[in-house]
Amino acid sequence: MTMRWFPDEMPEPAASAETVGWWEAAAAHRLVVQRCTDCGHTRHPPGPVCPHCRSLASEWSTLPGTGRVYTYTVVRQAFIPSLADKIPYVVIAVELDGADGVRIVSNLVDAETEEVAVGLAVEVVWEDMGPELAVPRFRPSVTPGSTTAGTGERR
Amino acid sequence: MDPAGPTDPPNRARPVTTGGGRACLVGVGETRYAKWGGITGTSEYQLAVEAVLAAVADAGMTLDDIDGLASFAEDRNEATFMAADLGLPELRYASLSWLPGGGGACAAVANAAMAVESGAAQAVVVYRSLCQGQFRRFGQGPGNVPARVGPPRIPHLRRAKTMLEAHIAFTMPFGMFSPPIAYAMVLQRHMHLFGTTEEQMGHVAVTTRAHAARNPRAVMGDRPMTMGDYLASRWVSEPFRLFDCCLENDGACAVVVTTARRAADTAKRPVSILGAAQGALRGFGHGQYSNVGMPDDDYASSGARGVAARLWGRAGVGPSDIDVAQIYDHFTGLVLLSLEDFGFCARGDGGPYAASGALAWPYGALPTNTHGGSLSEAYIHGLNHVVEGVRQLRGESTCQVEGAETCLVTSAAGVPTSALVLGARQP
Q1: Which residue of B has its CA nearest to A100?
Q2: Inside any domain, residue B174
Q3: How far is CA B413 from the centre of its chain?
Q4: Which one of A17, A20, A145, B376 is separated from B406 by 20 to 30 angstroms, measured CA to CA?
């Protein structure tokens, strides 16, 4: 098992036919984005059709796992009881490198709460929630400057 | 065409006629509002029925005049059953807007208006009942986790039962359990871009509470709030404190929509629907709750820019023509974003605009949420904002804007949404 940052009681994801591939990749600790194989447009959450060219063809494109914090919140209420000794925790939106502006929701871990800021460079770490279920969380990049994503001023 | 005739005596509904003119709001009604869990002896469904009865009575109509029912997504109280239970002579129109939760109240009214203007129905009641003490409180955590029935390739992965469930799989495992967390991130981004402050959000909370103090229906009518109280309230998810978040409560309300011709003989002054619009921006989906990837101009916004442009175009008026506003207020900060996107101030200036006192009755430039809103009157998914809009234009508000002739009503920011311009006069 890898590192655990959150309790067992965290809600586990549910998947549809369109999203199951993303979770399969996550289980293998691969951070991916759905990319249209006709026009190259990336999209998230995954869906059945490219909103740009309306192609039905897509692939899972593996990302480097780095990015920058686009926005965040410090959560100070324990919405489930087992989080009582985990608050505050930080929820972030990460603009992912190599994904043409796609952002995902995750957490900042292995950091002081005060470290979170818009534009902070982060890199993925994986938390196994079960034998075949993992979620990506992020820590401050250990090698600053390794990220190429912007601060999300424009997409 | 008159489906009811001499051979069909049980159907006493008036015949449907086209050419009845523009739609009007002619009745409003509500039940008692109480903090969640405060209404236990009466079911959520019965409260819905009571609100419908109150609205019909307020209009000076009877249920024999009603042939349509309309609501919006996430309603447990189904119109077809209600029509039977109410003994409506004939149900000729029943609709549920797809717009989720708080985004749909104005859309449900607009759909009812389209129904009566087209002649599909003659009088439609729009209703909402929410008993969060009897069902799940929206502001709470995920509740019981369903059993695993997952796809075979990953036995530990559950199969999503709804599209929304598949989408929030990308937020819930990260502790984004409920709307205040999702929209706190939107306001954090707004603060980053424009310098919006906590005190500016606090102006919305304090002003709205002051309005509620004059409203005997308001759940928080006897709980005054100062800026100091606001700043001392506990954090939920930064930058939102407890007092940035709307109420969780029990209650129901309803409004009656009919044609101008029929409205001529209703009990009270009819209120015109000058314009309505609904929808979502490209790629908006369910809004920022499940999609943080939208363009920056849309993310740190209400998402209602398109709705606003179409609304003003249809109503033939603009923000400077509005005398009073009921702006959906699930969170203080999103009121600021709505004020920007509906054009009352420049993009990014929602905070300073609120802090200027603009929202305060009676002297502000735009008295807003004169009933106390979702923050202090009641959280009925914003249908109570439509009720208050009608009261203002009848001269019946507890924070009456003198001579008010136009009222903007908006549904929720941050989800696909809708809005209305109401008028005291016929267009």
Answers
A1: B293
A2: no
A3: 10
A4: B376
